[in-house]
Structures are given as structure tokens and as C-alpha cells.
Task: structure prediction
Amino acid sequence: QVQLVESGGGSVQSGGSLRLSCTASGLTFDNNAMGWFRQAPGKEREGVSCISRSGGTTYYADSVKGRFTISRDNAKNTMYLHMNSLKPEDTAMYYCVAGPPFLGLRHAPLEGGRYNYWGQGTQVTVSS
Result:
């Protein structure tokens, strides 16, 4: 079965940094686009960032652009999210996702419905 397992969450102060990791199994990793979503209690789910199969194309939500960096290592079946300059509004459960390749997109693929597989989530808490 497909499994996506996140790690690296935790509690940090405003301005701090974290690196999240997602390791996949049960799928052909380099034939899947990957991404990160987040959800805070009482808030709608938000697409944070996503990355193409080869890693050559990336997308970011405006709220994290310039602070977060997504990457992947296909030899290790692992995707990363480097988060810098963290703010309290970044506090959320962060989910790793996998889905179809990006083919002729006209907009950023940051809608959750396009991704078929979801991890269990890892909590990120940023205090002021």
C-alpha cells in the first residue's frame, strides 16, 4: 500500500526554522508530483507548496514565498520543506501529498483534490 510518512515538525519561536521530510513507499516516486498542505483548527486547508516529478518546477503559496523552499531527492524517495523566518500564522498540521504529474498547467496546482495520497501529518507550532 502507498504510505507517506512525515517527520521534522516541532515547536519553535517566531523567526526560527524547521525542515520537514516526507518519505514515500508503495508508489513510483519519480512518477508523482509531490506537495505540502497545512491546516490549522477552524481554518480551511491551504496548499503550501508543490514540486514536479523531476524537481524542475515548483510552486508556493503567496503566504510562504521567499521563506519556504521545497525540494526532493528521488534516489531516496524523499521530499523536503525548508521553512525559514517562521511566523505564528504558520502554526498548523502539515501534510505530505502525492499525485499526478503536472501537464500543461495554467495555474498553480495547490488544490487538495488533485492529490490522491496523503500522509498522517506533522505538527508545526510557532510561538511569539
